[in-house]
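2024-03-11 09:14:02 INFO worker-7 job=invfold-0412 stage=load source=structure_tokens
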């Protein structure tokens, strides 16, 4: 069979749309038959694979500019968790990223061309309040379920009524500032919460504006704490809010909360500011400084040596001390070092605060924190033993005690019995606060299980007992000690 000559520059037959594999490799003409002419005369298997080439050309679609609002509304992409992705959680700082400085925050909303400072206040603004009653009401709505530093509310919260502070009045003086450091610290935290009518709350300009406004409230709160420290130094070994204190110290203002004495407001403000430096600015040094100052003031007031008395201010005093204890231990947990020196728990006689719907929530909440700090302490001791090539048998026993303690607290955190619907609606029972405390405890306990220690042992849950904490506390770890005690378990379970 002879091939026809090509005349006039045209092929005698159009080329095949798909060539066989052998013709593709040899770069020869294929007639597209089965078998093709080349494979037939060479007596070989002719096979075809559809080509991805050819077809009509697709027009390139130009990518449109994506605004910040579209990015904020887009659903988050699902990330695959790997060991490298969570490795930063076991280093000091727990993976916190240092945000922009205060100066950079001020430049962000000035450079944003999409946001005019002449915009109406209802569209672009920050959250401020005129009256202290409104600040206290907003605290119970937004902050109290997650950071219960004040006694439970006596009645339901009223609708939130903030005043939009417009972006155009950035450099103007703030509204009439309160003389209470607690009120100013609460205003700083509340200023970070976007307004419900804010259309571009996730834009860089609005976020930076809220951060800058919050920082102004923080500075004002610190000034009031320094002013209060002039008379707080005179309170020593006296019950806060008692007649003896009132006779020696005169506070020139009314308390923000009717059940929290004015002497506690500096401590509570420092606790809020410590949490602010941790979560908002990732400044661990200032976080520790605020918590340390609150701890010194609380011990100077002997808040850690209170008894079982029940008066108007007893619940506020208990919450002030144990939230100070929480923030101090949190600094050690985040920084993974003994940054604050806290005495043996056996020296603390102050009962735990009371949650009507869940009497054990406070104990579980604090025990989970103790487990986290003990895990950090154990890791440090483990590394020292490993580098010194010492006998690891004692370390293995310590590991078993730690795992036993973790599983014990985890079992108690999971054994929550929901209360009735009528109780959940009563704000005095703080059902939402109890649920948050147990969930935070479970999160903290789950992180204790990913402590980077090989060959963690597992103990059966039927061997749990409240002596686990004391057994683990009896081990003298370095570089610091934490001695959790179960002495107040009977107090929290009293009728």
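2024-03-11 09:14:09 INFO worker-7 stage=emit residues=495
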């Amino acid at each position: 069979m002879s091939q026809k000559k090509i005349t006039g520059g045209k092929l005698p037959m159009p080329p095949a749309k798909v060539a066989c594999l052998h013709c593709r490799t040899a770069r020869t003409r294929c007639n597209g038959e089965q078998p093709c002419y080349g494979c037939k005369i060479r007596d070989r298997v002719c096979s075809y694979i559809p080509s991805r080439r050819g077809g009509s050309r697709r027009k390139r679609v130009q990518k449109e500019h994506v605004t910040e609002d579209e990015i904020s509304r887009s659903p988050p992409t699902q990330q695959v968790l790997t060991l490298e992705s969570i490795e930063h959680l076991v280093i000091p700082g727990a993976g916190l990223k240092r945000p922009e400085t205060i100066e950079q925050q001020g430049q962000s909303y000035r450079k944003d061309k999409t946001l005019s400072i002449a915009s109406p206040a209802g569209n672009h603004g920050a959250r401020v309040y005129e009256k202290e009653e409104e600040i206290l009401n907003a605290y119970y709505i937004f902050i109290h379920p997650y950071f219960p530093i004040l006694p439970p509310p006596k009645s339901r919260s009223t609708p939130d009524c903030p005043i939009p502070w417009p972006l155009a009045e950035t450099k103007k003086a703030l509204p009439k500032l309160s003389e209470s450091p607690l009120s100013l610290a609460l205003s700083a935290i509340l200023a970070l919460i976007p307004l419900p009518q804010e259309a571009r709350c996730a834009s860089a300009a609005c976020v930076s504006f809220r951060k800058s406004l919050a920082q102004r409230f923080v500075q004002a709160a610190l000034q009031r704490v320094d002013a209060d420290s002039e008379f707080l130094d005179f309170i020593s070994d006296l019950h806060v809010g008692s007649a003896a204190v009132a006779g020696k110290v005169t506070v020139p203002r009314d308390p923000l909360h009717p059940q929290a004495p004015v002497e506690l407001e500096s401590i509570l403000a420092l606790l809020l500011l410590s949490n602010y430096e941790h979560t908002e600015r990732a400044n661990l040094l200032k976080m520790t400084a605020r918590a340390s100052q609150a701890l010194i003031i609380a011990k100077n007031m002997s808040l850690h040596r209170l008894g079982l008395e029940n008066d108007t201010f007893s619940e506020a005093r208990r919450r002030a001390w144990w939230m100070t204890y929480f923030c101090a231990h949190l600094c050690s947990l985040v920084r993974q070092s003994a940054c604050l020196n806290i005495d043996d728990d056996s020296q603390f006689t102050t009962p735990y605060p009371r949650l009507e719907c869940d009497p054990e929530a406070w104990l579980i909440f604090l025990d989970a924190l103790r487990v986290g700090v003990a895990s950090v302490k154990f890791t440090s001791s483990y590394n020292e033993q490993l580098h010194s090539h010492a006998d690891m048998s004692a370390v293995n026993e310590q590991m078993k005690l730690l795992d036993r303690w973790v599983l014990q607290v985890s079992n108690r955190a999971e054994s929550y019995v929901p209360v009735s619907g009528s109780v959940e609606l009563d704000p005095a029972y703080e059902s939402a606060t109890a649920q948050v405390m147990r969930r935070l405890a479970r999160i903290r306990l789950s992180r204790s299980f990913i402590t980077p220690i090989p060959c963690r042992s597992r103990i059966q849950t039927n061997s749990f007992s409240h002596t686990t904490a004391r057994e683990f506390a009896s081990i003298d770890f370095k570089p610091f000690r934490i001695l959790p005690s179960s002495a107040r378990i009977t107090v929290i379970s009293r009728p």
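2024-03-11 09:14:09 INFO worker-7 stage=report msg="DSSP finds 18 helices and two strands in the chain."
2024-03-11 09:14:10 INFO worker-7 job finished
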